[in-house]
Amino acid sequence: AISPEFEDIGIQNVDFFAPALVKALRGSQKKLGTELRSIWDTRDNFTFPTKGHTVDGSLEGSVIDVDIVRFTAGATKYYPIFDFPWWGKHVLSVKGSLGLVRSTTSEEVPIFERFFAGGSGSIRGFDFRGVSPIDPRTGQVVGGEAILLAGVEENFPIYKKFLRGVVFLDAGKVDEKDIKFDKMRAAVGAGFRVTLPLFGRMQIGVDFGIPVMK
Cα–Cα distances in Å, from 188 out to 8, 39, 140, 157, 165? Predict the structure, then answer.
């Protein structure tokens, strides 16, 4: 799929103690970009997959005030590991993803185009967007140009098809320029998934994570 877009990004009322990377972006930033995305999905069920995989990749480029190129790729594989008649299916999922963004000019990558990690869909157990390089002057997170994420999760039944539990391990990091395998962050945790058949099998999830590598 190809997705063109045009954005006018306004940054106003910048705090005096904000990082210089943010102060430099005061005003309006226009972005004209195109994203090429491809997805390969063999899951047997969208709401509760028990086997199959998803693989996706994207390449994005933009011009005008925001001159960047971004590459992302990720994959998730599902394995049925147990199927007890008196309990139900236990499914193990393994996932990984990476991303790189670069400026195509001599200017830095804008902070709103950088990668951050932490929170749901990333490294659970850490603050939302809390995993990131830090501005040495202000101590604030400023994002990075490289991200690496990985995780393992077991999904198991608690009550029929309506309530399921999960245990997980999430890991990853965000680096300033290139992926380095030191100073990884990781968290373990558990949660549950509630399926609501009356709302088109909508699923609600709550997770609790504990950082083990900060």
Answer: 39, 28, 25, 19, 14
Element (H, E) at 20: helix 20-23
Q: Name the nearest CA neighbour of 77 among 100, 102, 59, 51.
A: 51
Asked if 39 and 52 touch (Cβ cutoff 8 Å), the reply is no
By the 8 A CB rule, do 174 and 115 touch? yes
Is there a contact between 144 and 129 (Cβ–Cβ < 8 Å)?
A: no
Residue for token digits 């680096």? 175
Partners of residue 161 on adjacent β-strands: none
In the numeric block, which tokens belong to residue 134?
């830090």
Classify residue 202 as exposed, middle or buried by CB count within 10 Å of its CB (0-12, 13-18, 19+). Answer: exposed
pLDDT tens, residue by residue, 148-161: 999 999 999 998 77
Note the pLDDT tens digit of each residue in 101-114.
999 999 999 999 99
The identity of residue 138, as a single letter, is: T
Radius of gyration of the chain (CA): 20
Q: Taking Cα atoms as reference points, which of 81, 78, 82 lies closest to residue 95?
A: 78
Within 8 A by CB and 6+ apart from 43, the residues are: 49, 51, 52, 53, 54, 78
Phi then psi for residue 187, to 5 deg, are -145, 150
Furthest-apart CA atoms within the chain: distance in Å: 63
The predicted model scores a pTM of 0.90
Residues in the chain, total: 214
Q: Nearest to residue 77, comparing CAs of 57, 93, 97, 56?
A: 93
